[in-house]
Structures are given as C-alpha cells and as structure tokens.
C-alpha cells in the first residue's frame, strides 16, 4: 500500500516509521533484522531503506595504492524485498540521482514494480566524499525534481525510449526531502521552498523532513510550505542523538542547528551511555509535541542499533 494511503487510513492517528541503512558489503543481513525485530511491535506501516553513494577505496597492489570506485552498502532494493517478505510490511527504497544514469534508474524502478514495491523516496543524493559539490553522472539527473518527473512519466507508461508496448503501468507513490532549516546549497528558505514546490508539482506525494531538534522549526516550515502552495503531507524526521561527537558532527553533516538546552544537557554527560539517554529523552519530548499537533507520521532515523528508537516508541506510541 502507498504511504499516502497508510496516512489516509490512519484517520489522523500518528503512525510510526523508521529508516535503515544496508549493511556494509560482506556483512550479514541478520544484524539488520536483529535491529528491526524489536521495532515491529509498534506496527510501522512502512520502512525506508537508504541508498549510499559510491566512494573511492584504495587497494594495495605491489606496494602501490590502486584507486577503485565502489558502493560499500549496495542492495537497497533487495533488502526492501527481503524485509517486505519477512515482515509483511511496505518498504520504501531511496532512489538517487547521484551515481545512476536515467537508464539504470528505469531498470531499478522496473525491478521495484515487479517486486510489488510501490513507494519510492526520490532524492538527489549527497556529493561524493571527495567532491565539494554534487555532480550528476553521465546520463543522470542533476536535481531530484527531474527524478520525480521520470518516475511520474513511468507511472503514465512513458519509458525513456518510446519503443515499448505498455499494458501494465506502475503506480509509484513518491516521497521527497524537505528542509526546515533550508538545504545548504539553497540561497534562502524561500528559494528552497520554491524548489520543493517544483518537486510536488512534478508528482511528489509527500515530504519527509531533514532531522531537526527544535519543533518550532518544523511548525514554521509546514506553515511556510502551505503558504507556498504545498499541500501534501509533511512527515517529520527525528534523529535521537547518541554520542557526544554528534554535537559537532550533525551540524556539520546535515547543516542543522542544535538548541542550547540540548547542547548543555549533552555537555554535562560523562559517558556516551548518558548521552544516549539524553538523546532518547529529547526525542520523546519532540515526538510527543509533534504527535499532539497531529503530524501524520513520526519517522525515525534509526541507522544502526535500534534500542533508542524502541525506548522512544515505547514512550510515545
Ligand atoms: N539519503 C537520504 O535518505 C537523504 C538524503 N538527503 C540529502 O539531501 C541532499 C539534497 O537532496 P534533495 O533534497 O533530494 O535534492 P534537490 O535536488 O531537491 O535539492 C538539492 C539542492 O538543489 C537546489 N535546487 C533544486 N532544484 C534546483 C534548480 N532547478 N536549480 C537550482 N537549484 C535547485 C535545492 O534548493 C537544494 O539546495 C542531498 O545531499 C541528499 O543526499 C536528504 C534527505 C534524505
Ligand atoms: N544530507 C543528508 N544525507 C543523507 O543521507 C540523509 C540526510 N541528509 N537526511 C535524512 C536522512 C537521514 N540520514 C542519516 C544518515 C546517517 C545518520 C547517522 O547515523 N550518521 C552517523 C554520523 C554521520 C557521519 O559520520 O557522516 C551517526 O553516527 O549518527 C543519520 C541519518 C540519511 N539521510
């Protein structure tokens, strides 16, 4: 079922969902299952599976370092199918512009359609770690809005090359990213909202936000989005802080601000175990307020050990 249908069927009740990353190449999928298992009692209607960018690796060969490019966490669509099969839950693969040509994206979407996966999150993707700015690959899209258009075209039976006879069209429900504190490259929040509106006009059915730690930012964003003519559900993304290093890392990687109260509480912790507890309590407080405001879904960036998301879900759902 589509994410938007799950939201409609919930009749105003806030749903619980989360996001996971595929294991590193060579690692077992069992670890992932062990972290999903404890969250299933909260009935997530859907689980997102991210797609990571390819990266350079260096292999020693006769005393020299050979540079190769590879995706260290492949398998997004396979994991989506495996989870769907194992837990009978909908899965949402993240489909990126970065590192994929339009052809490859078409093949991936065809795979999803055959597998009964009818939700996708359409993202541009980050720049590769050695790049300062995002660069589209040869034959790939530059912006998420173009990717949304490709998916929407496919939903209308229009493949990249008009040579196929179509009697079974896909019907993907399309999610896109939104930024309550604006995207780093956007010159202003207003311009960023214009870009978000372009994604919705191209066919996006819902928005998931970048993580934020001050609910005020989310509420203001939702208001501004409405004023900009965006009327699709806007799902808040929540990340529980887990280690002291996140104080620097999260603002640096995700370009978001942390509230002073949260910073102070974390600074007072002696161990990362205490930090994890502060992160849980902050996320519970955020989640309860968002739930009271009637958000459609609370979407957690779990991305590893899920004990903290479980503790939050226990307190909120
Ligand atoms: N992997 C994941 O789960 C997620 C990744 N992200 C990351 O967020 C970043 C951006 O992704 P999206 O939001 O999907 O990209 P996007 O293509 O919607 O926007 C990227 C940037 O380009 C600007 N932009 C969009 N259209 C433009 C146009 N026609 N002309 C000029 N500027 C334009 C936007 O304002 C924004 O600054 C990436 O770094 C992505 O990896 C965000 C959320 C989830
Ligand atoms: N710019 C960007 N890229 C993404 O891939 C991304 C977003 N934003 N925002 C929404 C989700 C949330 N994502 C993530 C990805 C990783 C962690 C995470 O756990 N990160 C590490 C630190 C990050 C690092 O080392 O680069 C952590 O320890 O928490 C959390 C959320 C992926 N998504």
Automatic annotation (TrEMBL):
Family: Belongs to the methylenetetrahydrofolate reductase family.
The reaction(s) this protein catalyses: (6S)-5-methyl-5,6,7,8-tetrahydrofolate + NAD(+) = (6R)-5,10-methylene-5,6,7,8-tetrahydrofolate + NADH + H(+)
SUPFAM superfamilies hit by this protein: FAD-linked oxidoreductase
Species name: Lacinutrix venerupis
The keyword Oxidoreductase belongs to this UniProt entry's keyword annotation: yes
Pfam families: MTHFR
Protein's pathway: One-carbon metabolism; tetrahydrofolate interconversion; Amino-acid biosynthesis; L-methionine biosynthesis via de novo pathway
Assigned keywords, A-Z: Amino-acid biosynthesis, FAD, Flavoprotein, Methionine biosynthesis, NAD, Oxidoreductase
Protein name: Methylenetetrahydrofolate reductase
